[in-house]
Amino acid sequence: xxxxxxxxxxxxxxxxxxxxxxxxxxxxxxxxxxxxxxxxxxxxxxxxxxxxxxxxxxxxxxxxxxxxxxxxxxxxxxxxxxxxxxxxxxxxxxxxxxxxxxxxxxxxxxxxxxxxxxxxxxxxxxxxxxxxxxxxxxxxxxxxxxxxxxxxxxxxxxxxxxxxxxxxxxxxxxxxxxxxxxxxxxxxxxxxxxxxxxxxxxxxxxxxxxxx
Length: 212
Known about the structure:
Blueprint: E1 13-14, H1 16-23, H2 25-32, H3 41-54, E2 58-61, E3 64-74, E4 79-90, E5 96-104, H4 113-129, E6 135-140, E7 145-150, H5 153-172, H6 190-193, H7 195-211
Parallel strand pairs: 1-4, 5-6
Antiparallel strand pairs: 2-3, 3-4, 4-5, 6-7
Helix pairs in contact: 1-2, 1-4, 1-5, 4-5
């Protein structure tokens, strides 16, 4: 159940911030607070994939209409962005039901970062169109396959909670300390974040403080 609070237009954050936050709160802060960005082969491949999607307009395939780069907004979650692909499926009643499809360059992940981003898109669509959306899909470039996603209560609650945490992080203006992990190896922000160096400096300062 979404809260009754509505965010102001100036307080909206990008949908992608939810994905960044679940991957690493520090990465989210570097991008969305400090306005920093660095690209590697993985982000470049992802950008190229999204650019190909964004250059399309729309098309029809029988009972499915496909819209690309659809603008999205939710004042309840305080999010703004766009969906890679929205398929409109014709129902038995003759209406069109939106089915969001998010494109990712890699393969399915062990965490919910991609699912939360997709669910946030569905919540935006529901708010904008006053409808209920039950399903969507994630398309992964490496496997060339779709993974169906059900927007159940658990995923809705997680998405709302992550959106709230992202807003709290950005409002705080504080970038979390580095926490070196296996994720850092493939992160495009590693050269800016310097997770191992930051961790060593943090440990050194903690030691000095205790000694004093």
